[in-house]
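This section describes the prediction task in plain terms. A model, or a person checking by hand, is given the sequence of a single protein chain and must write out its three-dimensional structure as a string of tokens. No templates, partner chains or ligands are provided. The sample shown here is typical of the held-out split.
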Amino acid sequence: MKSRIFVIAALATLLSSCGFTVPVAVISSNGEVMRGTATAAVSGGTFAVAGKLKGKETKCAGTYNALDQSVTISMPVQCSDGRKGFVIATREANKIDGSGRVRLNDGTEADFVFGKAAAAF
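The expected answer:
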């Protein structure tokens, strides 16, 4: 019985630390690019990007339900300069690559890509 509990505990620890990280690139209408990563794990998903947005160095980040299998998901985003909004992401069939749109409360909008396409930025 003790060995079974040990195996279950070890498996739970292993699964909670499993995950994968892909590159993310946010591209504004004036050509500014923010770069970062998105990480999906059993414990949850996170994303963070940094770079210029409307001419100012900015960091933006958020969380999402990494277990959600929907093709399109919505995620809240918060930026270091106080702006906040939502990210709408559409995943390709492999669930690793995709694209989407960022909309912030000051009217800022930008496109983004993640996975293989983001590696080119």
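For orientation: Residues 1-16 have pLDDT under 50 and may be disordered.
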